[in-house]
Amino acid sequence: PHLQFFNKILIAAEAMELAGCWVGAFNEEKAAKVLNLTSYLRPVAMVPIGYPVQKRGPTHKNSIEKVTTIIR
């Protein structure tokens, strides 16, 4: 459910010509302190959003065969 929520936020941001990314690796204690969270709340992910420095063009996507290896 968290990923769906963050994806919706990112899609909405992109519709407003903003950019963002899902972040799941950070110091939880420091984040909780900065966000002034109570002890029963735990940050598990963040979505920083802002104006991109430059517009993104179309991205190249590799084929599934190029990015996977089957080990038998």
Please characterize this protein's 3D structure.
The protein is mainly alpha-helical. Helices cover 35% and strands 6% of the residues. A two-stranded antiparallel sheet has the order 1-2. It is extended, with a radius of gyration of 17 Å. The two termini are 33 Å apart. Its cofactor is FMN.
Blueprint (SSEs and pairs):
Layout: H1 2-15, E1 19-20, H2 28-34, E2 49-50, H3 64-67
What is the structure about, briefly put?
InterPro entries: Nitroreductase, Nitroreductase-like. Residues 8-51 form the Nitroreductase domain. This protein is mostly helical and 72 residues long.
Entry keywords:
two-stranded antiparallel sheet, NADH Oxidase, 72 residues, mainly alpha
Strand order of the largest sheet: 1-2
- The run of helices and strands is HEHEH
Give the termini separation: 33 Å
- Helical content stands at 25-40%
Count of DSSP strands: 2
Residue fraction in strands: 5-15%
CATH fold category name = NADH Oxidase
Number of helices: 3
Gyration radius from CA atoms, angstroms: 17 Å
Sequence stretches where pLDDT stays below 50 over 5 or more residues: none
Shape: extended
- Please identify which CATH superfamily we are dealing with: NADH Oxidase
Please indicate the count of domains: 1
